[in-house]
Design a protein that fits this description.
single chain, alpha/beta, UDP-N-acetylmuramoyl-L-alanine:D-glutamate ligase, 13 strands, 287 residues
Length: 287
Amino acid sequence: MWNLGSINIDNFYEVPHLPIAGETLAAQSYGFGLGGKGANMSVAAARGAARVSHIGAIGPDAGWTVERLLEYGVDTPHIAQIETPTGHANIVVDGSGENSIVLFQGANVQLTEAIIGSALSEASTGDFLLMQNETNGQEYAATTAQSLGLKVAYAAAPFEAEAIARILDRIDLLVLNEVEAEQLVEALGKPVEALGISDVVVTLGAKGCKWVSNTGEKVFDAYPADAVDTTGAGDTFTGYLVAALDRGMDMHAAIDLALKAGSLMVTRRGTADVIPDLKEIQDHFGI
């Protein structure tokens, strides 16, 4: 797998409730760690037993993030260090596990075609390219990947309908949440099943997910969990889903594994540093 994705420093603040406009809150606790949708998905894929190489950029202040990714099993030769500060996210989490996030993109949107092209030149036909919407370069990466015979998976967050529309004909697997799916349908004027994408997975939060393919659609129920923090749960789901497909699992089995991973993730506080590995999932669910 090749993951063109963001790398962030995540700052966590535990608060009694999510702040409203003009309100100042005292945090009950503070922590920081590795994050960004890209890094989260790379870690999830690696912990899901896939070989994943991350394509991204950091600033001069965050060499530890690359070391952390490497520690978690992610290949890191194609992470560039540039002068722009590393991306970061300030995350507030309330007592029920709901969150609010302010994101600074930083180095994540300073990727060059040379960085992306150098990485994908090492790819093989049949590999997956995974992307999100927290970096630049998706159009170039998708076009290059398609020409090399890679399968393109796109996690459409943060959501931007125009970004999806620009590469719609190069996407093999689209993952988005229920609200994003509704926004995309409204923006493009056609239902999900008419987008021309082989597989679309719409996550439904605590209700599970819906898989829409050329052969119809199927709803998968979520596994019950006592959620303490939903941050990174969707990224964990996507990383595990693509990793399972890359390892040759069929879509039914891949979605089931991804749902298990997501349900275990919401019982933990944090992002990339606490994503469960495959053995933890197997032990927890007795598989």
